[in-house]
Amino acid sequence: MKKLIHFIIVVSHVLFSISLIACSGEEKYLTSSEHTEGYTSLHVRSLSDDITPEVPVHIYAFNEAGECIDLQIAQSLDENFSFILPLGKNKLYVIAGASPDKYTLPDKSEATTNSVLTLKEPAQSHTELLAGGKEVIIEGKENEEIIVMIDRIVSQITARIEDVPSDITAVDIHMIPLEEEVLLDGTYGGEGNGEMTIKLIKKEEGLWETPAPEFVLPGTDDVIVKIIFTNAEGSENFTYDKGIPIEANHKTEITATYKAGVQDISGSIRSSDWAGIHEVKFEFGEGAEDKENENDEKLAIYDIYKNCLVIDIIEESKTQSTVLLMAKVDVSNLSLSNLSDIKKYSHEGIDNWRLPNEAEAQLLYTMYNSKTIILNDILQEAGIAVITSGNKYLCTDESDNVHYFVPGNSNFKLVQTQSSIKYNARIVNEVTVEYN
User: Fold this and answer.
1) How far is the C-alpha of 221 from the C-alpha of 229, rounded, in Å?
2) Whole-structure pTM value
3) Bridge partners for 69 per DSSP
4) 174: number of CA atoms within 13 Å, CB side?
5) Dihedral (CA of 30, 33, 36, 39) sign
6) Dihedral, CA atoms, 216, 221, 222, 227, nearest 10 degrees?
7) 217 contacts: CB under 8 Å, gap ≥ 6
């Protein structure tokens, strides 16, 4: 299981904890240095020791009317920041990694949720952008803690071209179609016809590589890849038009070997703390066979396997993956006296289901509360029982004591169970899947 630090750190998320103190009073806006009745003070800190978003971190606050009422920029994750929010529905949007050297971001006076993060040089690749948002409802006097999750919204690309002829003076890789724009709320804008050209450098005779990982917006469809060789006589293009996946929060590594008359390219989307693995192999060029993409796609988080949801990748190799599955059923009417009934559940030959532990429960909580990927939409489409916001779902702590958590709460915490109350459970199992 991937390590979780403090409250929540998962494979594709970095989190901020926001402590929230609300008071009743007339509605007006103050500067963040004032603390008067009628307003909400929010303090932001990073919860991650191992996974750190790039600075600066831009935090925009909008009121119920859609007006930007505050903007703060963190140049260090050790800084403390306070927001003053009015009663009602407010929204926080966080953008991490948007360096002022590369991007133009809206200031407070002009910001809307649909404002575009503009590259100062459109032909540039992006930085490792992370984004996310949270609706904050202020009703009265209360103390609580909320979590804003920020996900990577770019794909990382590296490329290596081998056996390049000695007369080649430039090698480029062109990709289309990609998302065109990033909006302030972390979604994408434009017509979805974006493109990007990545320039490789000559590392040694016959070998060209990307000098560093490049970050691009995800594809709007399977992406067409074109390799461009340039020499003194001009340019020659080699196109693979069957498409490869370029996805947010995935790494794509392209390795290509040039041959006289035949160019073989093998590509893979790999992951460490990023999400998912895909294997992509194909040939193109004069001598290439006209055959379908041989795509041996490994399981990734949010995939469906045997009508169950993959919620974590525990271990993987070229030939197999060990994954954590969440069963398709929402087990109800559980009490502390009948927990052994869980072990009787069997699904498509998979037995020995169990309650999630604390780390796995945190993972489910995070996935449910993500604003980037709507978990219940995926479950509903797959015919899997959805997660209900107010249900009390059972899990175990480090000592195997049974507690519960509530997905719809503003923060994750374990609550002591009572013998007189009925509970629900999203049971889990670890399975190993072998690939051909």
Assistant:
1) 25
2) 0.59
3) none
4) 13
5) positive
6) -50
7) 126, 153, 154, 155, 178, 179, 180, 182, 188, 194, 196, 248
Largest CA distance in the chain: 82
Chain position carrying tokens 């909580």: 365
Token pair belonging to 139? 């009703």
- Please list, in sequence order, all residues whose beta carbon lies within 8 angstroms of the beta carbon of residue 309, skipping any fewer than 6 positions away: 302, 303, 325, 326, 328, 378, 379, 382, 384
CA atoms within 13 A on the CB side of 136: 34
Q: Per 3-state DSSP, what percentage of the chain is helix, strand, and coil (rounded to 5)? A: 5, 45, 45
Q: Which amino acid would we find at residue 331?
A: V
Question: How far lies 22's CA from each of 138, 144, 170, 191, 410, in Å?
Answer: 7, 9, 59, 41, 14
pLDDT digits (tens, 9 = 90+) for 227-286: 899 999 988 888 777 677 788 887 787 877 787 665 555 544 443 345 544 444 444 445
Token pair listed for 71: 């903007």
d(CA 344, CA 340): 8
**pLDDT per residue as tens digits for the range 351-362:** 889 999 998 999
For residue 434 the two structure tokens come to 């072998």
Task: Cite the beta strand spans of 38-163 per DSSP E.
Answer: 40-46, 57-62, 68-74, 82-85, 88-96, 103-104, 116-119, 130-138, 142-152, 155-162
Token pair of 360 as six digits: 């796995």
CA distance 25 to 146: 22
